[in-house]
């Protein structure tokens, strides 16, 4: 999700300004409807929705005009594919609380990827996490909630902070167990907060310690989502388009 889609209209589809175009993506369990932005008389732009599984969906270009029935202008197939970011998010979500797996992720720290790679990883994995269907009982600290804060262990929050993943840290903070993870020491005695300080991640440390700290700028300017039952509405500020997602 969140890629820019461009729609090229044929000559006969170029119509008056009062016609509104939108795309409808119909999957096996979820349907998305996106508004579009006119770039010029022959081109539209919108944002691809984040989908709940990898499949080929039907996408319809619809035209709406006040006082007239909705017209389906064209239909095409659109494929949601599984990429490395999706795999990484699924791996991390599954391994919350799994000490063997979380210790294994520490090898990434030793290789110290370049800042540009870290930023790319942060954006893609955090976005994939946002689109995962996490179980209702999912927790940042794993399935065993009987463990106390006094038991030293590695957490998903340690992983995100150690690599300086600002967006992923923000996402985890909003999940059950996210705030609780901040005071947990690992086997070296480090908490996620002390790791951020030790590594000089000022923005990250601010995010973890300031009460009411806002989400990272790169996200807050990108989109805002409101959930209500089986529906969610997302506003992409960059293109000023809206996306409605509903469980079919």
From TrEMBL:
Which Gene Ontology cellular component terms are annotated? actin cytoskeleton; membrane
Superkingdom of origin: Eukaryota
The record's listing under Gene3D superfamilies reads: Ankyrin repeat-containing domain
A molecular function annotated in GO for this UniProt entry is: MAP-kinase scaffold activity
Q: Which BP terms does GO give this entry?
A: adrenergic receptor signaling pathway; positive regulation of canonical NF-kappaB signal transduction; regulation of Rho protein signal transduction
Q: InterPro entries given for it?
A: Ankyrin_rpt-contain_sf, Rho_GEF
Annotated protein name in UniProt: AKP13 protein
Taxonomic source organism: Promerops cafer
At the highest ranks, the source species' classification is: Eukaryota, Metazoa, Chordata, Craniata, Vertebrata
């Amino acid at each position: 999700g969140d890629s820019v889609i461009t729609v090229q209209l044929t000559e006969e589809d170029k119509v008056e300004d009062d016609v509104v175009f939108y795309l409808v993506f119909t999957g096996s369990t979820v349907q998305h409807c996106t508004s579009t932005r006119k770039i010029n008389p022959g081109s539209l732009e919108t944002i691809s929705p984040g989908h709940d599984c990898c499949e080929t969906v039907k996408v319809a270009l619809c035209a709406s005009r006040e006082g007239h029935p909705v017209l389906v202008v064209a239909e095409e197939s659109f494929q949601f594919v599984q990429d490395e970011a999706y795999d990484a998010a699924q791996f991390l979500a599954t391994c919350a609380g799994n000490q063997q797996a979380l210790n294994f992720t520490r090898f990434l720290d030793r290789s110290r990827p370049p800042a540009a790679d870290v930023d790319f990883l942060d954006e893609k994995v955090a976005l994939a996490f946002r689109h995962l269907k996490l179980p209702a009982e999912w927790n940042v600290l794993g399935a065993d909630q009987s463990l106390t804060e006094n038991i030293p262990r590695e957490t998903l929050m340690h992983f995100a902070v150690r690599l300086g993943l600002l967006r992923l840290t923000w996402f985890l903070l909003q999940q059950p167990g996210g705030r609780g993870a901040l005071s947990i020491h690992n086997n070296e005695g480090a908490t996620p907060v002390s790791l951020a300080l030790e590594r000089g991640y000022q923005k990250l440390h601010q995010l973890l310690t300031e009460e009411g700290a806002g989400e990272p700028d790169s996200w807050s300017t990108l989109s805002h989502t409101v959930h209500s039952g089986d529906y969610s509405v997302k506003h992409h500020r960059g293109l000023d388009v809206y996306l409605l997602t509903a469980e079919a």
